[in-house]
Amino acid sequence: MTLLETERVAVSPLRRGTPPRRRARGRAGYYFVAGYAVLLLAFGIVPTAYSFWLAFTNDQGQFTGLNQFVKVVQDYRVGPAFAHMLVYLVLWLVALVVLVVLTAVILRSRVRPATSALFRFLYYIPGALAGVASVLVWLFMLDPDVSPVSWLLKSLGMQTFAAVLAPGNLPLILMLIAFWTGAGGWMVVMYGALNNIPDEVLEAARMDGAGPWRTAWHIQIPMIRQWIVYMTIMAFATGTQLFVEPQLLQTASLGRVSPTWSPNQLAYVYAFQQGDFNGAAAISVVLLAVGLLAAGLLVARSNLFKLDES
Amino acid sequence: MRAGRRRTALRTAAAVLSLTTAALLAGCASADTTSRSSADRSAFKPATQKEGSQITVWADSTRLPSVQKYQKAHPDVKMDIVTYDGGADGSTYLQSKVQLFDRTGSGWPDVVFGSPTDVTWASEPTKPGARPFAAPLDDKLVPQSTLKGFAKGSLTPCQFDGHTYCLRNDIAQVVLWYNKSLMDKWGYQVPTTWEEYEALGKRVARDHPGYLVGSVGDTNSHESYFWSGQCPAFDLVKPDTLRTDLQDANCTRTAKLLDGLIDAKAVTTKGFFSQGFAKESGSKVLMAYGPSWYGQYLFKAAFNAPAKQIAAAPPLTWQGETKAATGNVGGGVWMVSSHSANLKASTDLVTWLTTSDENQASAPTYPAYTAAAQAWLKNPANSDYFAGDVSGAFEQAADEVWTGWSNTRFSDATAWSSVVLPALTAGKSLTETLPAWQKEIANEAKAHGYKVADQ
Amino acid sequence: MTPSTLPPAAAIRHVRPSRALSFLVVALLLSFLLVFFVLPVVWLLLAPSKTAGEAVRDNPLSFGSFHQIGAAWRHLFAFQDGAMLTWLRNSAIYSGGSLILTLAVSVPAGYALALTKFRGRKTLLVITLVTMIMPQATLVLPVFLELNRFHLIGTVWSVILPFSFYPFGVYLVYIYFGSSLPRDLLSAARIDGCTEWQLFARIALPLAKPVIGLVAFFSFVGNWNNFFLPYLVLPNSKQFPVQVGLNQLLTSTPSFNPVAGAGLNITIPELALAIIVAILPVLVLFLFSQRTLVSGMLAGSTKE
After folding, report:
1. Which DSSP state fits A44?
2. Which subunits have 3 or more CB–CB pairs within 8 Å of chain A?
3. Record: fold of B9-172+331-378
């Protein structure tokens, strides 16, 4: 398929014939993985272990049990930070799942292939602006003074940039930014997954008199369920990591957005303003555990990933 | 047999688990960070000095031309000039970076421009064993005679444990700015009390809708109004105890007065410095209660107000009170790094920046150094722009800055910007937002290790 | 690839109003999304052609002048004596350096995981998968603490080394070799007396071109746009990659930070231009991959 699609199509559940087993030949395997194993150890395993160690000790290196966590939980900023993250996650996941799946189905079965390819490309382009660039662009989109949709903002009663950045709007704004940069890529992935459904299946449905919506609901969507779960978990795990977006909004809004809006920002403040690396580690361990759990669940429970040739 | 063995294994596992849990819950040591000791402060040992080595200077964009001017005048000094946000609006950029440098053991800038808040942490080590970032300037670096030349009280934010860790660049005493041409045209008297200010504001709103007598929408508006109103929001009664009581009559009367004016649309909740304000309402500002730098910075640079229109009056008093008190909005400081390998050049630079007429006479802000302030006031470029002599108002206000608003380890702007401003934008009144503001200040204070008193 | 639109006859049993409605939903959704995704990009491309004043006053989607683009360009690159250039160069070093390391490490690793047998292979694979799915940002703070321990903070390596750890790349290579390199070919070569290294270098590597391109694309794009890690580990603004530099520009921009930014020439058009310049390499890659996209589609159609 396309380069864009190969990304995840390559990760797709491979149903192809598995190569025959071979007896190990010397230690060649070890040499080939050595470099990678060192990096994995240094930047995957050791940091994980190190942050656990920090989270259970204090700055004197003494064992503190759960005291770091207790201390962090009692911090008045923790509740709001996690609440913000939760609201954002709900908005972001619902929008992502509904719109991405719907759009992919439409692009797959309601539009001519050439048009579909063009749309997929145009939707994907903002992905090039991930990170800081996307936030900067959206700062302008949300500023009624320069925004091309200022009429919309004003008709919603938001006359100034400050009014747009009202605390209640923030999860929605962050969701828009995330959707803008990320959804296009997922649409391409879902499209690829839909493309893998054999034409005979769709043909049979058509013979039975099912319309396109009905086919989508009863056949196409159930058949790409794995992929939807995959997307949801990935998006969830990434969503817990909000940092750049609220951080830049905080700067650009001259402090109207709290500097500890998201848990990751709070960890940052702990480490770099309070100089409390243990407290910061406690927060990141919580986030890390969430990420590990999501990843473990996905690897263990879905058969999206090819683990063994047998 | 197998089942039995598994049961044993399970039992062992359960025992181990419960033991671990018990250990975890009991904990062994405190999670608090080691308290910062101030024991080593008196013994300042400079880093190894390298004469003529390059110095790195971090300045905000406003102060950048001054540093460049120094470079031009002293081409033999090797300098590396970096722009950053200058600690404005409660930014913690400098603090985060110094934390990093302390950990890497190198990279500190030699000279930085910062806010008074920055001095609170820069005068303390960021971790046990680290050297405080700011060098004690009174310790053989800057002569006492120079330190004595700063305006009364202007070095207070620099002083900790008997040492002076920074030189004050400018004072930002709050005065009453007004558009003299419009006031004369409409036949208004310049108010001298808050009550007159309020009455005039309501009259303006009636007679000339759209014209404004102030704004509460900036990140520093609380310093203009609540500091001037002697509201005990950030009162360090002891070095480790913060009193914040926003139900104090001084706070509520200011809030009530402003609420009335906001309702009348004479005071706006949009910031003077917010995007688009200058374009929409810049020419409609009849009065502004704000710092001395509003003249050059706000009216001239941002609003493009023509010369000979804007004037300044002394701070307002409350009826029945004889002595006026006023606030202070910003007023940056220059610090020298204790890690600098060229303290001589660094000190020379900050001294030049803060005290020389050459720099300060044409500075964008009112100098904290008394002699430089005289030169600043005499500079035709400063006086010609205004519709009258501002020196009386400035000098009076400089003496009247209320000392009950302390310099805390956290910026006073964060709570105001993140709690009060969004509430005002959402249409809430100041009076009803005061409790939330107080709560946020108290929370912040506790997070920064203060005890909090609210009476 | 087969034509994917359903012929109208397919829905023959449906009554016309519902078909019209369904068409309306499709058209509305697609065009709404089109505006949502494309409008900000169009605005961004037009913004540098106007002065700050025009950006506020004029139609947001109007074109100003080429002359103004030049002015914005000069202002932007004059900022802090050409800091923008330094940042771009840094980004190139960080993304390029880690790209080389990533490829050097992940191609053999993916190959070994797919085609050789060794103890711990499965474990390594599972850990790879888990770290691949875990968002990168979770480990940034611990990685920072670790780098700090080893006194690497502030060095080029503090960015390049963590960037080079790219489990997704290893997994891509693993899948690729597992499915496209017949083991019989390897066994035959072994019988001919090839060493394991020769097998890899002479047979596997030449075949791996497509997957190398893929890994390179994702690694480069991801690292170029990464903000969190360099933001933490690089204290000096001369070391910033362009993404962190953009943040610095933002704090110096009068339109978003009027107090700190006054007196600078960095206004809306300059900031917009900076965004474009900063993402240009990635954008070019995206557009370039569009060509592969088309040819890949043609190739795909012959496959099924």
Report:
1. I
2. B, C
3. D-Maltodextrin-Binding Protein; domain 2 (3.40.190)
